[in-house]
């Protein structure tokens, strides 16, 4: 940036200007079922056929499909019968609901919840607090009360988090050898995707998902099969209720929701409950030490502003919090993907 070409014609500024248009094209194609239909059809389809199957206008669908071709989410073949569209490989893997690596649910959460909060980003920056009150008419005092404002919203959030762990879970759990830890508590474990990855990677482990009663109920009913004997549940609020003794505590995307005081309070409770020789695994998106990047993490930190009480942090900041709680031998592993791992020992 800053080259003569950039100053003569601000390509990068124009790209940033239309960034939200790109997101909404992808979200809309997912929501309408474009990628699912093309996977199920097993053959390329015309825009008219897709519009008819999905109950949309032909003119709107044609433009949406062409935009998806421009984004390389679809491919098009021009035949004598006209243009025929098919999924690209990346769309089959990540944008169809039936794929084990589907990101559909997290995209729907971004499209229908996060997107609305970001409408008030300027207000969030002015005030330094989340924007649930403006976006949804709900008190900003309890971020998770707002996120879980209905069972439907809670399901969307939990399914969205499960989507994330389907592509990032194994990397963060394999960052360190966790096989010595057999008794594990996943604090705020939600829909249990990370717990399932954990018992898959470490077959001798037993993982207990600790979360709010209504979250545990949905996890049992919707996400964790009853035949999975290595995953147990504990209902409670880890700020106000006791935390049982265990060898390892996993806090995945937990501390980034809270301010320093709440983080210190929670980590102190975890340290007190932890068996000697045990540890805590933090799974977070780490900022560079000079806060210069990664861009995704900087954007996530903005999202923490509009949705929670927290922020993204550097490895040094997380290490400082762990040390203040009494943890030692702190190690940091960057995975090269969205989420990284920090391990502290008692």
From TrEMBL:
Leading EC class: transferase
GO terms, biological process: melatonin biosynthetic process; methylation
Entry's Gene Ontology molecular function annotations: acetylserotonin O-methyltransferase activity; protein dimerization activity
O-methyltransferase dimerisation domain segment(s): 15-96
Pfam families tied to this protein: Dimerisation, Methyltransf_2
EC number: 2.1.1.4
Pathway the protein acts in: Aromatic compound metabolism; melatonin biosynthesis; melatonin from serotonin: step 1/2
Residues of the active site: 256 (proton acceptor)
Record domain O-methyltransferase C-terminal: where: 118-328
UniProt xrefs under Gene3D superfamilies: Vaccinia Virus protein VP39 (3.40.50.150), Winged helix-like DNA-binding domain superfamily/Winged helix DNA-binding domain (1.10.10.10)
Keywords on record: Melatonin biosynthesis, Methyltransferase, S-adenosyl-L-methionine, Transferase
Entries under SUPFAM superfamilies matching the protein: S-adenosyl-L-methionine-dependent methyltransferases, Winged helix' DNA-binding domain
InterPro entries in the cross-refs: COMT-like, COMT_C, COMT_dimerisation, SAM-dependent_MTases_sf, WH-like_DNA-bd_sf, WH_DNA-bd_sf
Domain of life the protein comes from: Eukaryota
Record note on quaternary structure: Homodimer.
Biological role: Catalyzes the transfer of a methyl group onto N-acetylserotonin, producing melatonin (N-acetyl-5-methoxytryptamine).
Protein name as it appears in the record: Acetylserotonin O-methyltransferase
């Amino acid at each position: 940036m800053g080259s003569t070409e950039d100053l003569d014609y601000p390509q990068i500024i124009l790209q940033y200007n239309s960034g939200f248009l790109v997101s909404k094209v992808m979200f809309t194609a997912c929501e309408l079922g474009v990628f699912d239909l093309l996977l199920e059809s097993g053959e390329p389809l015309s825009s008219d056929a897709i519009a008819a199957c999905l109950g949309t206008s032909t003119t709107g669908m044609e433009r949406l499909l062409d935009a998806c071709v421009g984004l390389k989410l679809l491919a098009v073949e021009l035949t004598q019968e006209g243009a025929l569209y098919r999924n690209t490989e990346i769309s089959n893997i990540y944008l169809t609901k039936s794929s084990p690596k589907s990101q559909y649910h997290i995209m729907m959460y971004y499209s229908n919840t996060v997107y609305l909060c970001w409408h008030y980003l300027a207000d969030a920056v002015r005030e330094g607090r989340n924007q649930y009150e403006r976006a949804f008419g709900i008190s900003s005092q309890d971020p998770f009360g707002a996120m879980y404002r209905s069972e439907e919203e809670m399901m969307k959030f939990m399914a969205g988090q499960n989507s994330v762990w389907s592509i990032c879970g194994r990397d963060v759990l394999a960052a360190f050898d966790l096989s010595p830890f057999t008794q594990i508590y996943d604090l705020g474990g939600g829909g249990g995707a990370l717990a399932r990855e954990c018992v898959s990677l470490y077959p001798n482990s037993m993982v207990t998902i600790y979360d709010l009663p209504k979250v545990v109920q949905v996890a049992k009913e919707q996400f964790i099969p009853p035949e999975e004997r290595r995953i147990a549940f504990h209902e409670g609020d880890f700020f106000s209720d006791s935390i049982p003794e265990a060898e390892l505590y996993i806090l995945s995307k937990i501390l980034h929701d809270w301010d320093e005081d709440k983080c210190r309070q929670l980590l102190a409770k975890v340290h007190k409950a932890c068996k000697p020789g045990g540890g805590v695994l933090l799974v977070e998106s780490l900022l560079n030490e000079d806060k210069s990047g990664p861009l995704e993490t900087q954007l996530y930190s903005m999202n923490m502003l509009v949705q929670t009480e927290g922020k993204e942090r550097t490895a040094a900041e997380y290490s400082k919090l762990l040390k203040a709680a009494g943890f030692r031998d702190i190690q940091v592993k960057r995975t090269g993907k969205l989420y990284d791992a920090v391990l502290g020992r008692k």
